[in-house]
Amino acid sequence: MLGYTLKRLLQMIVVLGAVSVIVFLMMSFTGDPVFMVVPIDATEAEIAQARRILGLDRSMPEQYAIFLKGMLQGDFGRSYVFREPALDLILERLPATLEIVVVAMLMSAVVAIPLGVYAGANPGRTESRAIMTGSLVGISLPSFWVGMMLIFLFAVKWNVFPSSGRGDTVEVMGTRWSIFTADGWHHIILPSLTLSLGTMAILLRITRAGMMEVTRQDYMKFARAKGVSRRGVLYGHGLRNALIPVVTIFGLQLGDLIAFATITETIFAWPGLGKLLIDSIYRADRPVIVVYLMLVATIFVVINFLVDILYTWIDPRIRVK
Amino acid sequence: MTRHLMRSLAGSVAVAALAAGAALADGDKSLTIALTADASHMDPQAGEELSSNIMFYHIYDPLVRRDADLQFGPGLAESWELVDDTTWRFKLREGVKFHDGDTLQASDVVFTLDRLKASLMSNLAANIASYSAVDDLTVEIVTPQPYAALPNDLAAILILSEDHLAEVGDDGLERNPMGTGPYKLVEWVREDKVQLEAFDDYYMGEAEVEHVTFRPITNPATRTAALLTGEVDIVQDLAVRDVDRVKNEEGFEVVTRPSLLNLVLALDMREESPTIEGPNPMTDVRVREAMARAVDVDTLSKAIMNGLSTPSDQYVPASHVGHVDGLNFREKYPFDVDRAKELMAEAGYPDGFTLTLDATNNRYVNDAQIAQALAAMLAKIGVTVELNVMPKSNFWGYIRVPTENSSFIMSGWDVPSGDAGSMYGALFYTRDTREGYGQVNRGSYSNPEVDALVDKADSTAKIDERDGYLQEATKILMDEIPMIPVHYEQDIYAARDGVAFTPRTDKFLWAYSMDVAEE
């Protein structure tokens, strides 16, 4: 177990190194950040001064070396645009994204797994067909359209939810959270629902496929024959054995939503990570993009690690090596 | 533990609700304004874009104030005089308070200029050679040469408190901005809201609206929705497609105003141009005139801008120093394809030529579509335009002087200082002959007469003389067409009824000049 953890850590460092090099190389093609900072009619001397202030007067390898050195000391560089430490900018926005993503994932799981189990256990029924058709709609609808429709219906037309923003926040452990206030929940529902639809549909379909596979197994009939209730068989014996692919997808989707909730965040003016990434790309703000993508890589590695651990718990026959 | 946490949370919610209730009971007026983007800075010397500028003018004040129509008047300085050709003396108002209670002194102005010179925004102080405090309330500023537009420039320099910066540190201003402005910062939650509160001791009197909240809502449709649901009172940049929808809605009003941003096409004037094979036809003024006549600004306005653009008559708007009354580019060179074809034939290019237009796709309203339309229009006179459209993060570096890649560039130019001089000096002065001039002369235009007029304008301390020289320059430029002016975009706002608000020419929304009707 310890060896496995160490191996994963090592893997993570390699991934992070690769990400930082790739972003550095990529960003050298996306335009010179200094022109996003100085006024259009700046003179050569003013541009040179700006370059010096931003540390852009050095060669690419030198800039990378400075970045690496700073990182070892916990300094991830300063945003060109905001003139603040890039890591602070990202950490400030992370809670907002985590909130909508966690709520969205819970919504997906709570809706998708029971429906998936039902549809898998009773494949012939009309209700099951309706569920499957619904899931197709969930996969195919683009989130920007869903978001706009939800705003149009629930905010503009019926006035039950606010259209945008985060609402009241409460400071807990030094960061602001909306999930601890009623007004915050009022604001979370629509963006989380928008985010959850795609994942909900995918989880539902995977759960159903797994259940259809499992219900044909002999141990299911045996459990039923020895007197276990239908519900108990479905969830205790069936779902548990169908869960491995569901957990895998759940983990991947979780990472995906944290990293790329951009569109939903923009539509609902939700002050999360995604908007920061888009703004930074527009403004060629390299320090923020590097740290952001490194954070995303870390999140993916960690989630996959946790999912691997979960496997052993769900199916004791699996061992991590 | 959990229960304890929940209880303390419930407690703080109750407190928050009480506080909100108290604010309403006071009958304090409040306004919520939706902006297209969050401010990047609270430090006015760290960078500028519109959202930050809007915050700056709430929190800080300049020596010279620029009003909604670009007229300049006293700000923190109550008066000023010329001591000699290059020396100006500014008398500060007495007893102006910073938000922390300190009194504004001449040393704060000197400190501000010191810090500005070493900052990213040093170009705001380009026409300031030296400065000093004569006494507690008098500042002397010396320009490198006689320069009549100094007060206009000072309207963009916001005064900081020396003591406050000593306290919070050089980087501290970002999170703890403090000035003499009409509003104090209460809270800034990035990408969520900026909350301001009226400053009681403001030297022009306390603001009518006590609480102002700015909310960044990037997505245009969401901004409209937030207005219609009553979450915000005013929206900036109402989407063109939502204009009719909001107009038809009971209780809302759409307000438009021509902006200062002039979309211009720079024509390369070098003998050889990067994207043109053989000699450059645009060195011939007849070709430039033909191209100007081929551009149909009315069609652009109707088909692409939904009527929300104003064709440009000159390089600067009528409010500016250097604008010639009665002279109109559109009347001088009206849209006329036949005449344009004749001119092309006279110049020896009956079959036209091919060149590349560099343009942005995310900087100006419908910029990529405008570029496509221009290509179609110029094709009618035989000029084949290949489009090179890119995002703004690549654009500014790509078209940078000495423009080794470009022959034909579409970009916008605005002069909030209300004076054509800085534009002419930067865009039309012969390159590489004088420091700080011609640095954005993208077409390599060169005319000693224009250079001389700009020199003269920049060496008089009298604004009338400056105006005269710049008007002469305007006339020459209109004859020679180094650039084709296209149109001014229109700024579109919407507000709910009961909000008194007039847009400013420079787009800087200013709550101090707004009011809300009593409920």
Characterization of the model:
The complex is a heterodimer of chains A (321) and B (519). Chain A is an all-alpha fold. Chain A is 74% helix and 2% strand. The model of chain A has no long low-confidence stretch (mean pLDDT 88). In chain B, helix 8 packs antiparallel against helix 11 (337-346) and helix 15 (448-457) packs antiparallel against helix 16. Chain B is built from 16 helices and 19 strands. In chain B, 31% of the residues lie in helices and 22% in strands. In chain B, the strands form four sheets. In chain B, strands 1, 8, 9, 10, 11, 12, 13, 14, 15, 16 and 17 form an eleven-stranded mixed beta sheet that branches. Chain B has a four-stranded antiparallel beta sheet with strand order 4-5-7-6, with helices on one face. At the A-B interface, helix 2, helix 3, helix 5, helix 7 and helix 12 of A face helix 1, helix 6 and helix 13 of B.
Task: Spell out the blueprint of helices and strands.
The complex is a heterodimer of chains A (321) and B (519).
Chain A: H1 2-27, H2 34-37, H3 44-54, H4 60-72, H5 86-121, H6 126-140, H7 143-157, E1 170-172, E2 175-177, H8 182-215, H9 218-225, H10 230-260, H11 262-267, H12 273-282, H13 286-314
Antiparallel strand pairs in A: 1-2
Chain B: H1 2-25, E1 30-35, H2 50-59, E2 64-66, E3 72-74, E4 77-82, E5 87-92, H3 106-117, E6 130-135, E7 138-142, H4 150-154, H5 162-168, E8 183-189, E9 193-198, E10 211-216, H6 220-228, E11 234-235, H7 243-248, E12 252-267, H8 285-294, H9 297-304, E13 309-311, H10 329-332, H11 337-346, E14 353-360, H12 367-379, E15 383-390, H13 392-398, E16 408-413, H14 420-427, H15 448-457, H16 463-480, E17 483-496, E18 499-500, E19 515-516
Parallel strand pairs in B: 1-10, 1-11, 14-15, 14-16
Antiparallel strand pairs in B: 2-3, 4-5, 5-7, 6-7, 8-9, 9-10, 11-17, 12-16, 12-17, 13-17, 18-19
Helix pairs in contact in B: 8-11, 15-16
